[in-house]
Write a structure and sequence with these properties.
The chain has a two-stranded parallel sheet. Helix 3 links the parallel strand 1 and strand 2. With 94 residues, the protein is mainly alpha-helical. The chain has a domain of 64 residues.
Length: 94
């Protein structure tokens, strides 16, 4: 019989923990999540999956532009008004 790698055994026998983890405990309510990252938006998009809720990730998805930080944040919709709009959109997904 071939030997299983250590990680494979854990993956085959894993179970849901009986107590919520720290991420679930920090976000008790089942509300959608808006992530804001001044890098690739998908870098934080996993949080919705981890919490089992819908998510709206905001970030920089086109690269190569130059300018000041405020200009680039405006270009990539990372300003407060855009974040509020993303939150409203996330709430409408529920």
């Amino acid at each position: 019989m071939p030997r299983q790698k250590a990680g494979a055994t854990g993956a085959c026998t894993r179970m849901c923990p009986s107590i919520p983890g720290p991420l679930r405990a920090a976000f008790g309510a089942r509300a959608p999540v808006v992530t804001v990252h001044d890098a690739a938006s998908h870098a934080m998009a996993w949080l919705g999956s981890a919490l089992g809720v819908r998510s709206v990730p905001l970030g920089v998805d086109q690269f190569g532009q130059s300018g000041s930080v405020p200009e680039l944040y405006e270009l990539h919709d990372l300003l407060p008004g855009s974040i509020v709009n993303a939150a409203l959109a996330a709430l409408s997904l529920t």
